[in-house]
Amino acid sequence: MMGVMSTRDAIARAFSVGLDLVEISPNAEPPVAKILDYGKFKYEQQKKRNEARKKQKIVEIKEVKVRPNIDENDYQVKLRAMKSFVGEGDKVKVTLRFRGREMAHQELGVKVLERIRGDMEADTKVEQMPKMENRQMVMVLAPK
Predict the structure, then answer these.
(1) CA–CA distance from 87 to each of 1, 48, 65, 115, 140 (Å)?
(2) Residue 68, Cβ neighbours under 10 Å: how many?
(3) pLDDT by residue (tens digit) across 31-51?
(4) Are 56 and 72 in contact (CB under 8 A)?
(5) Sequence-ordered alpha helix ranges (H) in the chain
(6) CA-CA 20 to 30 A from 80: which of 64, 74, 118, 132?
């Protein structure tokens, strides 16, 4: 702590010690500067950035496709897959595809998606409610 001084004096002090004058917070009143080795300072900042990047989790969207007349065993397999995806912290996009005359019975698709929503309710929240997109119904679940 050397107190408030002119820029010229600060540069002269840094030069006499053989180090650099680095401005730490330019928006402060008066601006804060430190006398230190600039190369080492940049290296430390790069290390902090890399460490932060390692720790951050990228949330992916995993897609699970189902049909309106899905069998019970197939349903359980899909449900287990969705639970594992949510357990890893990923979002799950449930796509229910209609083929041919199944379009006339969209209420069956809504029932399947409601069942999925009910079974996954403990672990997830609905990010996007079921909605029709052409010949398929889509719902997105996100981990709580």
Answers:
(1) 50, 28, 19, 19, 15
(2) 20
(3) 899 999 999 999 999 999 999
(4) no
(5) 7-17, 38-55, 72-87, 106-119
(6) 132
